[in-house]
Amino acid sequence: MYDAGKVIPGLIAFVVLVTVPFWTNFGKAAPEPKPELPKEYKKCVESKDFMRREHMKLLRKWRFDVVRKNMRIYINSEGQPVNMSLQNECFRCHTSKKKFCDVCHDYVAAHPYCWNCHIPPEEKKGWATKEVKNWTDEVSSEQPASHH
Known about the structure:
There is one protein chain. The protein is mainly α. It has a domain at 48-124. It is built from six helices and two strands, in the order ααββαααα. A two-stranded antiparallel ribbon has the order 1-2.
């Protein structure tokens, strides 16, 4: 082998440089995410462990049942009826996408497509402003009596 005195040390140096990040972090794990639970948190749709593990499957099933089967009520494991709605049910308690959803999704590098259709809770707050309510009251009061 020509120039073995240069090639072999070069390969060793390359392997060492490429693997240094793995060796410096060996045995260290990123801290587990701590999503902010609602202050008035009592109980979720299902148990905390179930929701941590299976929430995406549950939401996918809800979407399918609502859109394809026109089913709107989910009966949870305790026999309690729950409205199948991310926007109207889940966001009632989980009011911050950044502090709840994004904490775990960023940790696992997941990019859910919920927000392609649903409005994140922070953005939703401005939708029912006083001006909009006043405008809708004005419009409805301008309707003829037969339209009320």
